[in-house]
Amino acid sequence: MKLVLIGFMGSGKSCVAHALSKELHIPVIEMDKEIEKKAGKSIKEIFAHNGETAFRHMEIALAQDLRAKEHVIISTGGGVVMNKIIIDYLKEHDGKIIFLDASFDEISRRIGNDTSRPLFQDKRLAQDLYEFRLPLYTNYADVIITTNGKSIPQVVQEIKQTFYNT
Ligand code: S3P
User: Fold this and answer.
1) 79 C-alpha to ligand 1 centroid (Å)
2) Quick one: which atom of ligand 1 is closest to the CA of 10?
3) Is 149 helix (H, G, I), strand (E, B) or coil?
4) Residues paired with 3 in a beta bridge
5) For residue 9, is it left (φ>0), alpha (ψ between -120 and 50) or beta?
6) In the 8-state DSSP scheme, what is residue 72?
7) Whose CA is nearest to atom 3 of ligand 1?
8) Per residue in 23-63, pLDDT tens?
9) Dihedral of CA 41/42/45/51: which sign?
């Protein structure tokens, strides 16, 4: 099985992926990190030098490379739902899509001052994006885990319970 974590920036995808990896002994692939490695620059630099469209193409190409992966946890970037083809690739080979659902207020508290996320520099625009994407995350999800007020171990436990009954 392949566990694919989706959700808005700051929803905890990467922290949950690593905690889950330790519990289940399954490796993690972080899509943003893979793209940074391939491009030789940070996400912020990719947006500044190449633009968002180029970044989205990189996401699509990476998802295509990952389609045959099995027994892995994939932590996605918050914008993968903007291109359905990415979700289609990630669902191949028994990919399960897990949406980590956090309120915008909670997300804002977590990452409101982070300058490394190009699409979270203007809070109002970020909130519009959040509202636009919410139905996409919901529709693509096999499972929705609400994370408001929950610790990482609690979220990990819920995921384990859902997929492994433990
Ligand atoms: C993005 C989310 C980021 C990163 C890029 C674009 C988005 O990942 O992929 O800045 O469009 O929501 P995180 O969700 O890990 O912050």
Assistant:
1) 6
2) 16
3) coil
4) 73, 96
5) beta
6) E
7) 77
8) 999 999 999 999 999 999 999 999 999 999 999 999 999 99
9) positive
| Cβ neighbours of 157 (radius 10 Å) | 16
CB–CB of 86/140 below 8 Å?
no
Beta-carbon count within 10 A of 162 CB:
14
Mean pLDDT of all residues in the chain? 97
| Residue 101 CA to ligand 1 centre (angstroms) | 15
pLDDT band at 166 (very low <50, low <70, confident <90, very high): confident
What percent of the chain is modeled with pLDDT above 90? Answer: 97
Q: Is 12 in the pocket of ligand 1 (CB under 6 A)?
A: no
If you measure from the C-alpha of residue 67 to the centroid of ligand 1, how many angstroms do you get, rounded to a whole number? 20
Task: Annotate 52-70 with b (16+ C-beta within 10 A) or e (fewer).
Answer: eeebbebbeebbeebeeee
Q: Mutate which of 14, 43, 113 to test ligand 1's pocket (most atoms within 8 Å of Cβ)?
A: 43
Which tens digit of pLDDT belongs to each residue from 120-142? 999 999 999 999 999 999 999 99
Measure the CA–CA gap between 59 and 17, rounded to whole angstroms. 18
Phi, psi of 7 (to 5 degrees): 155, 165
pTM as predicted: 0.97
